[in-house]
Amino acid sequence: MTYSLDVDCLTSIRHFEGRGSYFGSSEIMAVSDMNQTIHLRVNGAGHQLEVPARRLLVDCLRYDLGLTGTKEGCSVGVCGACTVLIDGQMAASCITLAVAVDGAEITTIEGLAQDGRLHPVQQAFIDYGGFQCGICTPGQVMAAKALLDINPHPSEAEVREWMMGNLCRCTGYYKILESVVNALGSKPEATPGGSSLDSGESRNDGVG
């Protein structure tokens, strides 16, 4: 199943919201304003929600369910801040319609800690200083979890390639990468004030 929208479709949805007469498309406004009943299982809890057809998953999580850990950055699915897991698969919630994931299992940053204990990825980001302002951190952590779920012991090169779709304007990435490669205890301890990663290697900021 495909959950996400293309950028042109998303732009149309956002433009039509509250401005149907301006675009001369009252029919589309009528459809997008129709409420639909959806059932989601979010972080293990079941929810039945009435949402407009145009409701984006990031808005559903933040405003309908109060799960504000998921952040919206670029609004077009390229920065990674809104990353969640849908049926275990990484997805950009800012370009995913809530109605498209009816019946799905959603995991957000709030669902990672269990029994009062942080997930190893969350703990590693603290231990190795993988964050500064914190806006991108939930998406970074969710992306890292998705990687470690399928590859528990990735190489630094594999981490770099996987994480290149999650952008950060604060850290310079080295501490993020160090956090991920150390998350499951498969790498040496971090060097205080430094990184085990090769700082001479340039980063490709393309979308992952």
Features:
208 residues, DNA polymerase, domain 1, single chain, 13% strand, alpha+beta, disordered C terminus, Ubiquitin-like (UB roll), 33% helix
Could you characterize the architecture of this molecule?
With 208 residues, this protein is of the alpha+beta class. The chain has two domains: 7-18 and 34-111, Ubiquitin-like (UB roll); 120-181, DNA polymerase, domain 1 (Orthogonal Bundle), CATH 1.10.150.120. It is 33% helix and 13% strand. It has helices at residues 7-16, 20-23, 26-33, 57-64, 120-127, 137-150, 156-163, 174-181, and strands at residues 35-42, 45-52, 83-86, 89-92, 105-107. Strands 2-1-5-3-4 form a five-stranded mixed sheet, with helices on both faces. Strand 1 and strand 2 form a beta hairpin. The longest helix is centred in the C-terminal third of the chain and has 14 residues, at 137-150. The protein is globular, with a radius of gyration of 18 Å.
Summed up, what is this model?
The chain has about 210 residues and is of the alpha+beta class.
Helix proportion of residues, in percent? Answer: 25-40%
Please name the fourth-level CATH homologous superfamily of the largest domain: Beta-grasp domain
What's the CATH first level of the largest domain?
Alpha Beta
Question: How much beta, percentage-wise?
Answer: 5-15%
> Can you list the strand order of the major beta sheet?
2-1-5-3-4
What gyration radius follows from the Cα positions, in whole Å?
18 Å
**How many helical elements?**
8
Average pLDDT number: 80
> What is the string of helix and strand elements?
HHHEEHEEEHHHH
Low-confidence stretches: 6-25, 188-208
For the record, the count of structural domains works out to 2
Termini separation comes to: 19 Å
Q: Main sheet?
A: 5 strands, mixed
Helix-and-strand structural type: alpha+beta
Structure summary, number of beta strands: 5
Label the CATH architecture of the largest domain: Roll
